[in-house]
Write a structure and sequence with these properties.
Layout lengths: L1 E2 L4 E6 L2 E6 L1 H7 L2 E5 L6 E2 L4 E7 L3 E5 L4 E6 L1 H5 L2 H5 L8 E4 L12 H8 L1
Antiparallel strand pairs: 1-2, 2-3, 3-9, 4-6, 5-8, 6-7, 8-9
Length: 119
């Protein structure tokens, strides 16, 4: 798993990148009450706002970590945003995207570097 400075995690599964938010992000946000995901088939650009999340504390945007196409979204977190609080790095992934080259994920932080960032 790799991590962004915006507190997203990325996991490569074949030619797909699965994206979610880290436990640290969830702790900072508090209890989520709303999630709006991008449309499947949408072409996105790196750093484009593509997800809206709202918590009891604040509203926030999730950025596309890479250029690519959204190929699947996690409707379960739209129906029950609290899943993000209970399992942020597992069942509560946000979206899956097809990217031109999955090795682009290598540019992001590994777990040790991410832990150093948040400590």
């Amino acid at each position: 798993m790799k991590y962004t400075e915006e507190h997203e995690w990325l996991r490569v599964e074949g030619d797909i990148v699965v994206v979610g938010v880290t436990e640290y992000a969830v702790t900072q946000l508090g209890d989520l009450v709303f999630v709006e995901l991008p449309d499947v088939g949408r072409q996105v650009s790196r750093d484009e706002d593509i997800v809206v999340i709202e918590s009891v504390k604040a509203a926030s945007d999730i950025l596309a970590p890479l250029d690519g196409e959204i190929v699947e979204v996690n409707e379960a977190i739209v129906e029950d945003p609290a899943l993000v609080n209970s399992d942020p790095t597992g069942a509560a992934w946000f979206f899956k995207m097809k990217v031109p080259d999955t090795s682009a994920v290598d540019q992001f932080m590994d777990e040790d570097a991410y832990k150093a960032l948040i400590d």
